[in-house]
Amino acid sequence: MFNIWHPVLIWSLIRVVRFQDELLWAAAWLFQATDDRRYLDYLANNADAMGGTGWSTAMFSWDIKYAGVQVLAAKILLQGRAGAHAAVLQRYRQKADFFVCASLGKQGYGNVKRTPGGLLYHMQWNNLQYVTSGSFLLAAYSDSLAAARQAAVWCPAGPASPAQIMAFAKSQVDYILGSNPRATSYMVGYGFIYPLEAHHRGASIVSFQSNPSFVACKAGYAIWYPRKGSNPNLLDGAIVGGPDENDNFVDDRNNYQQTEAPTYNNAPFMGVLARLAAGGRLDRSIPDGLDNQTSVAPSLSAAGDQGVHASPIVIEQNATASWTEKGRTYRRYAVTVTNRSLNKTVHELFLGIDKLYGPVTGLDKKRYGHVLQGTAPSVPAGGSVTFEYAHAAPPANVWVTGYKLV
């Protein structure tokens, strides 16, 4: 039997940064499946070092599992199974609440963008992968909150009840299936209008049953891929990449960013569809007899809890210079990021920046946010780092997206 507890194996794995969210994800699921508290110990004891309680993200996908870990850890806490690890799981739950608030547009900063038609929009290439996985996670967390008789997640811009969370997940499903400005279903074969040119090798080559003639190894790409017209094989049920930030969509198999159809688009979508089909009316997300407007047990992300589980990272901004050019007043801002931890170093710090209209120095832009410059940047206990930006506007919004504390 494979033993994940072998110390040499554990050390070799945690050195691979990209795997650390996967290890926490695996530990959470293994505890859920086996009730073996060694897995819960692993989830709690590595919360800081592996980023489980450091990442605040509204993105959940095959490549970044932190939000899923946080929602599952919150479920364990809500079920009353945390034991001695309740304090750590409370911090996981704060991040799960961030996922909800940012998805529903109630966070204030770090909110997920929306298209004019109301679709969550993360990025141009295959945006629907994040919508299907995010909707599934929202539906799952809604059920966990309702089962624990929690009235709401308390967001900076107002509460989000389990019913509201579920309703929002359903709105994303409705959009994907055709309730959108284009009246287009992004599931192949469903509805009146749907993609006919999915970026998919098997769908774009003629079926052997229709034409049994030999197709050479490279002929699929050289002959069938560039041909004009609908795919000869209908890829029933596949969900494509979906529209852009303005709800526009070009149905062309060469347009792989919008028409590719990976399995990870469909997998979470099946989960949320099953939940909606089984749940009937949305208000069943609230247990019978629970008043929607009454707070039974405030979310652990409520204002009163922030001081108990505050982030070790503090951000301060100061205007250091100003000048006028072409009738506009520009200011240079220095941003200081301080690690308040007494004995742990901040590694892999990611920062979110919004309402920035000028150049920034001292940071590099990466996929999941801005990072400190350098080959292996870190902030030691009690230490600080500074970066600058300049623009003709009030201070930009700067916040911590993620970090690991070791």
TrEMBL record:
Residues of the Glycoside hydrolase family domain: 19-273
Catalytic machinery residues: 199
This protein's GO CC annotations: extracellular region
Keyword vocabulary terms for this entry: Carbohydrate metabolism, Cellulose degradation, Glycoprotein, Glycosidase, Hydrolase, Polysaccharide degradation, Secreted, Signal
Keyword rRNA-binding among UniProt keywords: no
Short name of any one Pfam family annotated for the protein: Glyco_hydro_9
GO terms assigned for molecular function: carbohydrate binding; cellulase activity
Listed name of the protein: Endoglucanase
Source organism of this protein record: Aegilops tauschii subsp. strangulata
EC number: 3.2.1.4
UniProt-listed InterPro entries: 6-hairpin_glycosidase_sf, 6hp_glycosidase-like_sf, CBM_49, Glyco_hydro_9, Glyco_hydro_9_His_AS
Highest taxon, organism lineage: Eukaryota
PROSITE patterns in alphabetical order: GH9_2 (PS00592)
Family: Belongs to the glycosyl hydrolase 9 (cellulase E) family.
